[in-house]
Amino acid sequence: MSSIPLSEGRPPTQRIATPAQRIALVDVNNFYASCERLFDPRLESRPMVVLSNNDGCIIARSDEAKALGIAMGVAVHKVRDSLKRQKVQIYSSNYALYGDMSARVVSVLKRFTPYLEVYSIDESFLDLSGFADPEAYGHDIRDTVLRWTGLPVSVGVGATKTLAKIANRMAKKNPALGGVFVMPGDDADDELLGRIETGDVWGIGRRLAARLETLGIVTALDLKRADPKFIRARFSVVVERTVLELRGTPCLSLEAATPQQKGIMVSRGFGKRVRDFGHIEAAVATYASRAAEKLRRQGLAANKLTVSLRTSPFDAARERYANAASFVFPEATTDTAEMIGAAGRCLKSIFKPGLAYQKTGVFLDALEDAGHAQRSLFSRFDSGPGADPARTRALMQTMDRLNAAWGRDTVRFAATGLQRPWAMKQGNKSPCYTTRWRDLKQVQA
DNA sequence: TCTGGGGTCCTAGGACCC
DNA sequence: TCTGGGGTCCTAGGACCC
Q1: Is the CB of A77 under 7 A from strand B?
Q2: Where are the beta strands (DSSP E) in A135-276?
């Protein structure tokens, strides 16, 4: 994270003097709207919005649209008349375009420092520790990105990620700053923090803000001055970190390497309500295969698949229902057909006829590196050279006998193979074997 | 009629083991 | 049969982010 390498052999507890950490947050202003504008110059200085997947709600607005008071996330049908009256241009979203533009911005940013974390499609954290004049550097970054990609960015600099976020917000809110703001640091931050509500601090959402308010903590400055230990006891370690970060103590490090993804989700709302099982089944199969594609593209394999299904939480008059079912694969898989099959079974177990459904999704979980996917305990008997199905059956029978005799999942296979709540709910008693090497050892013992 | 589609991390609590 | 502490692993649910 720091650009100063630790010398080898130094005890980890010993602190070394480093220049104050400087983190810059660079993000694209109104990212989706700015991308669309790039390819349609007629939109320049006109109010415009970009819509979500089914053109359901507003997910991006140009400055001009914001000035008209159009809210983020609002359902289009609620504001359709007002959009028309104010001549707001309306665009469907184009994620392929945004992904491509995002990559271009990142490649420009990488010329400024290799210590960079791509945080989201339109935001990156840059480590500028040790740079003499971060403000001038920020302007350089901004000018270069604009010139090379056509996209306007804002740059906020602070001692921690949380402070960089706040600085970025300042840069956006005050046009006079020219898109760049550097937090002065320490006590000099206080005047500014006093004018920011806790809910606008990174990591403090609506619920936490409400709970903090009951304690009299209303502004970012109040939060900075709160006792970290008290906050930890009352809330959690997450909020405690935010307090420390506001004080300039880094708790969230810059992650230059992208870690392995932990879950993969594909979900969509239906354009209109759906009652037909076949329709939902087709959607689930499509999502399962898309999820499998994403999985393989990253060289991962999944151990578990979950299907969720729900009616609309917005239909106050109709019966509400939401449920999910999971399937744990006998061994980690990347196979589309296997996933579609599992997804279909899961769906069947939670589908209730007669309801008007709004949304379904497929989630892949317990991911691991496909190259090191755990071999099935039985796979060497099941297939390949030396296959011995009889041996497999014998092993399974042994397990069944042990489990029956001891009245529980003695050797831990039977129960761990199926997610319990689902198995119970379905009355599915058939054992499903997870076959890890540690289990094999227990059997042999 | 119509309300996004993804992700992350933390905590509490249950099952189980010795 | 009861009691009990210390530990791991797993899951559900809640909070947040973009």
Answers
A1: yes
A2: 153-158, 180-182, 264-274
Q: Chain-wide mean pLDDT for chain A?
A: 84
Judged against a pLDDT cut of 60, whether residue A189 lies above it is answered with: yes
Compute the residue count for chain A.
445
A202 touches strand C (CB under 7 A): yes
Write the CA distances from A50 to A37, A47, A92, A229, A440, integer angstroms.
Answer: 11, 11, 6, 43, 54
What pLDDT digit, counting tens, does each position of A33-66 carry? 999 999 998 888 999 999 998 888 999 999 999 9
Closest CA to A101 of A13, A165, A37: A37
Considering the entire predicted model, what is its pTM? 0.80
Closest CA to A155 of A242, A103, A140, A19: A140
- CB-based contact A31:A124 (threshold 8 Å): no
Which nt has its C1' nearest the CA of A358? B3
Is the pLDDT at A12 greater than 70? The verdict is no
CA atoms of A370 and A379, how far apart (whole Å): 16
Chain B nucleotides reached by a protein CB under 7 Å? 1-11, 16-17
Specify whether the CB–CB gap between A22 and A131 falls below 8 A.
Answer: yes
Characterize the bridge pairing of strands A23-28 and A153-158. antiparallel
